[in-house]
Design goal:
Blueprint lengths: L1 H7 L4 H4 L10 H28 L17 H10 L4 H32 L17 H21 L1 H9 L1 H19 L8 H30 L7 E2 L2 E2 H22 L4 H5 L2 H10 L1
Length: 280
């Protein structure tokens, strides 16, 4: 379940740029729903076509061939497109570039919002004067991603692979929080109409509960050393990397709770938040 969620992760990027779009109350939401349906159509149709063309055999370009498990498209490129097979490589590279952008962009917008509202130092809420984008937040998120990838590449490629597997835990964690927050935020409007009850209450709450269950079930599975490629103190490396990074988030939250520039947000003091923002 989390693997499927990880595959579709990124469709919500348009929700992160709602303040930069026309009709921000409706356009981003519609874009998110439309993109989800488009992704479903693309993934399902491509999967069916690949299975129909390559078959599931264990020889040649067959999907059952162990030599093709890492990348079936590279294995098929010359057979399908002949001399134009390099176009598939370009398409994969473009997809990777898009994936990196959908990783940095939402987190930069998230920290921008947190900086504006006082949950992070005001520096994170700065907007680039020429590009009109969260300049400092984008730089920090990009630098953090690069530093983590480079460090893990030097330390252990296997641990890097396991940490990527642990990303599904983070996705389930913050999607579940979003579902619970939606239910709680709109709790006062759930009885006004059947539409509000389902779209603001039942569906977000159901999704949050399912993702919470998936989070804990996957965490237990990742505890097993046989789950991934690494083992640390008798525990699976995917579990360790996931828990360590989640714990780091808790530590950062505690630090922000006591920082003078962000304390007001956590104590519910709007005047302190405004004063810290003006100082920033």
């Amino acid at each position: 379940m989390l693997l499927a969620l990880f595959i579709y992760w990124g469709w919500d990027t348009c929700l992160a740029v709602n303040e930069e779009t026309e009709n921000p109350r409706t356009t981003p939401g519609r874009g998110a729903v439309i993109s989800a349906f488009v992704l479903v159509a693309i993934y399902v149709s491509v999967a069916l076509l690949v299975m129909m063309y390559a078959t599931v055999g264990s020889e040649g370009i067959g999907l059952g061939n162990e030599a093709n498990q890492d990348d079936v498209f590279v294995a098929m490129k010359d057979v399908v497109l002949g001399p134009w097979g390099w176009l598939i490589v370009v398409a994969v590279l473009a997809s990777v570039l898009s994936s990196t952008q959908t990783t940095i962009l939402p987190t930069a917008r998230g920290t921008l919002s947190m900086g504006v509202h006082g949950a992070l130092p005001a520096k994170f809420g700065e907007v680039h004067p020429r590009n009109q984008t969260p300049g400092f937040s984008t730089q920090v998120m990009g630098a953090a991603a690069i530093a983590y990838y480079v460090a893990m590449s030097f330390l252990s490629e296997n641990l890097l692979s396991d940490s990527i597997s642990a990303i599904s835990l983070f996705i389930a964690f913050y999607y579940a929080l979003t579902g619970f927050a939606c239910f709680w935020y709109f709790r006062g409007t759930l009885r006004t109409s059947a539409r509000n009850l389902w779209f603001r209450g039942m569906l977000p709450l159901t999704g949050a509960l399912l993702l919470t269950a998936a989070f804990f079930i996957s965490a237990v599975q990742m505890w097993d050393p046989a789950y991934g490629d690494t083992e640390i103190f008798g525990v699976g490396g995917a579990f360790i990397s996931g828990v360590v990074l989640l714990a780091l988030g808790v530590v950062l939250a505690v630090v922000c709770r006591f920082l003078p520039s962000t304390r007001g947000y956590f104590t519910g003091n709007p005047s302190a938040v405004a004063a810290a923002r003006n100082q920033g």
